[in-house]
């Protein structure tokens, strides 16, 4: 696998692992946060349901007052009942607004409508027409409303208890306070009928009073039980103290007074109790208020704790998010560092090595200042590149030298044209071609006339210049494929392309004229005119040999010299 791919794969796996771990932790914190948020909402719902229960409980007082009054009931009592019902309706509306399911209070609404209708029907009858059984039934119906109100939010209570297990006890206690208020109300309601009818308490009513007292005491003990730190909260303690003094002392005294009056043989008729239901309610109902204050104090404490835990959940979620972001950033930074500091230089080094292997030294090599192993490697690579470049330069120099030596070996040092050795090679090649193609091959040998006297008169350097210029003149006269070489001293040889004796002779003649007519200007300004003598020979057939050809051309040249020079002679 390529290094880049491996690095990408490792980066992706690391990123996935970190994201997975962080995501899991974030998800758990998020769920706690959401659960805390839902718990808070549920807590508000619990509070709303308790308030509704309170109002329902409270409505019983004015209801009893109206049922226990004459017909029609006093306007003030009717007004109190209307106001109490309004309060209940408002509390129920608020509860409905907070409940997700709109029909969650349908059963309660129905029961409330029927209970109120019952109260109104009884209140619309003259007092004599209201039997104790009817009155009891109406009161019982009112009693049944409170548990219904509390049941509407049982699920919500459960949700908040799950979100905040630590405040469960507070919620349980506040519910117990609602129950306590309910039983306290029932205790008062038990006296409604005897007070309305000015009759002594029946045995059943007395037993009910005993039962309710016992239940109230039980609830009181349960609420006072020290079960958590929250119980020690100042507001809760103060509310409990007030409940004890107001309800369990004063409220119970009022109940006891009615009880005693009921069993007193001295009192009878309308004066038996010294008060009617409304007066009783006026005195008794305010003593129950501290019970609700206990409920409120407990609820408030629960809310405070829930808020604290909600804030804590939010705080922890924020930290988890920050933590996750920081870890991701560190990971990304580490990956970037590894990529920039290790992977990228390694890749560059690999590419450089590959280029070096291919003989490409063009890549710029900055000397790395890094002090780690990568720096060592890059420096070694730069040295390797330098060495390779040097070796390549030396090899090129060597090749150049070999080429130059080869050229020198084939070239006449003075005139720059082919030397005799090179001419022999080229001549033999061409001779082989001539044999293969069955063509004629000619050789023109020419020698500068009286060259010794040039040397003698103008010096050896001037002689050299003459040789150079003659080579230039002849080369300029020849065409492609016609070979010129210095045969030795002041002697030159020309090999035309495959041709016969006449064509070769014509070429020799052209060369002779060119030399004769070319004024040779020397470096010191002298202008010389020289001539040359030419010997031409031709070879043909499978047995043609270069030496024989030269020999024949040499003989012809000799004749040209001996017959007066500056002329062309051909083989005989
Ligand atoms: N300057 C110079 N002279 C050379 C060179 N090679 C040969 N010579 C001279 O060429 C002359 C040849 O002279 P000879 O062989 O006597 O012939 P010639 O004087 O040309 O007379 P003919 O050939 O008979 O016309 C000698 O003096 C050589 O020293 C050379 O490379 N440079």
TrEMBL record:
Domain (GGDEF): give its ranges.
439-572
State whether keyword ATP-binding applies: no
Q: Determine the domain of life of the protein's source.
A: Bacteria
> Which UniProt keywords are given for this protein, alphabetically ordered?
Coiled coil, Membrane, Transmembrane, Transmembrane helix
Q: Which Gene3D superfamilies match?
A: 3.30.70.270, 6.10.340.10
The protein's Enzyme Commission number: 2.7.7.65
Residue ranges that the Swiss-Prot or TrEMBL entry lists as coiled coil: 74-125
InterPro entries, alphabetically?
Diguanylate_Cyclase (IPR050469), GGDEF_dom (IPR000160), HAMP_dom (IPR003660), Nucleotide_cyclase (IPR029787), Rev_trsase/Diguanyl_cyclase (IPR043128)
Boundaries of every HAMP domain copy: 340-393
Reaction catalyzed: 2 GTP = 3',3'-c-di-GMP + 2 diphosphate
* EC class (word): transferase
Q: Membrane-spanning regions, if any?
A: 317-338
Keyword Transferase in annotation = no
- Tell me which NCBIfam families the record gives: GGDEF
Q: What is this protein called?
A: diguanylate cyclase
- What organism does the record attribute this protein to? Duganella qianjiadongensis
């Amino acid at each position: 696998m390529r290094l880049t791919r491996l690095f990408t794969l490792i980066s992706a796996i690391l990123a996935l692992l970190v994201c997975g771990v962080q995501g899991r932790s974030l998800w758990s914190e998020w769920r706690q946060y959401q659960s805390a948020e839902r718990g808070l909402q549920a807590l508000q719902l619990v509070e709303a349901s308790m308030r509704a229960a309170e109002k329902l409980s409270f409505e019983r007082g004015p209801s009893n007052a109206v049922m226990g009054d004459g017909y029609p009931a006093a306007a003030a009592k009717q007004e109190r009942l209307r106001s109490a019902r309004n309060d209940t309706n408002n509390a129920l509306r608020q509860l409905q607004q907070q409940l997700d399911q709109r029909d969650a209070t349908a059963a309660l609404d129905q029961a409330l409508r029927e209970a109120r209708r019952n109260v109104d029907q009884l209140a619309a009858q003259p007092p004599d027409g209201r039997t104790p059984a009817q009155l009891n039934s109406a009161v019982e119906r009112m009693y049944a409303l409170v548990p219904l109100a509390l049941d509407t939010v049982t699920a919500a209570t459960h949700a908040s208890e799950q979100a905040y297990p630590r405040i469960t006890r507070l919620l349980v206690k506040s519910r117990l306070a609602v129950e306590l208020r309910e039983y306290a109300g029932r205790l008062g309601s038990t006296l409604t009928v005897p007070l309305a009818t000015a009759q002594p308490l029946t045995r059943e009513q007395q037993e009910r009073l005993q039962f309710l007292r016992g239940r109230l005491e039980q609830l009181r003990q349960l609420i006072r039980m020290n079960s958590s730190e929250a119980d020690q909260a100042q507001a809760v303690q103060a509310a409990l103290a007030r409940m004890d003094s107001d309800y369990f002392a004063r409220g119970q005294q009022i109940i006891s007074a009615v009880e005693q009056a009921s069993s007193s043989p001295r009192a009878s008729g309308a004066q038996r109790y010294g008060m009617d239901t409304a007066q009783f309610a006026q005195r008794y109902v305010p003593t129950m208020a501290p019970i609700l204050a206990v409920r409120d104090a407990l609820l408030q404490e629960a809310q405070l704790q829930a808020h604290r835990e909600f804030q804590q959940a939010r705080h922890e979620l924020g930290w988890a998010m920050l933590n996750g972001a920081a870890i991701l950033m560190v990971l990304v930074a580490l990956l970037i560092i590894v990529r920039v500091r290790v992977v990228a230089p390694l890749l560059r080094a690999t590419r450089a090595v590959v280029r070096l292997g291919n003989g490409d030294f063009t890549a710029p090599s900055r000397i790395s200042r890094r002090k780690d192993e990568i720096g060592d490697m890059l420096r070694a690579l730069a040295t390797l590149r330098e060495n390779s470049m040097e070796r390549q330069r030396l090899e090129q120099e060597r090749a150049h030298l070999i080429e130059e030596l080869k050229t020198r070996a084939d070239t006449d040092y003075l005139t720059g044209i082919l030397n005799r050795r090179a001419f022999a090679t080229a001549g033999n090649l061409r001779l082989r071609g001539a044999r293969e193609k069955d063509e004629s091959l000619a050789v023109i040998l020419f020698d500068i006339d009286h060259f010794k006297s040039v040397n003698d008169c103008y010096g050896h350097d001037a002689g050299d210049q003459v040789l150079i210029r003659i080579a230039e003149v002849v080369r300029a006269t020849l065409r492609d494929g016609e070979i010129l070489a210095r045969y030795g001293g002041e002697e030159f040889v020309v090999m035309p392309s495959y041709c016969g004796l006449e064509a070769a002779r014509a070429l020799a003649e052209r060369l002779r004229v060119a030399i004769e007519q070319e004024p040779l200007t020397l470096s010191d300004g002298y202008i010389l005119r020289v001539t040359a003598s030419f010997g031409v020979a031709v070879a043909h057939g499978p047995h043609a040999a270069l030496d024989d050809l030269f020999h024949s051309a040499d003989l012809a040249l000799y004749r040209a010299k001996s017959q007066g020079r500056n002329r062309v002679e051909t083989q005989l």
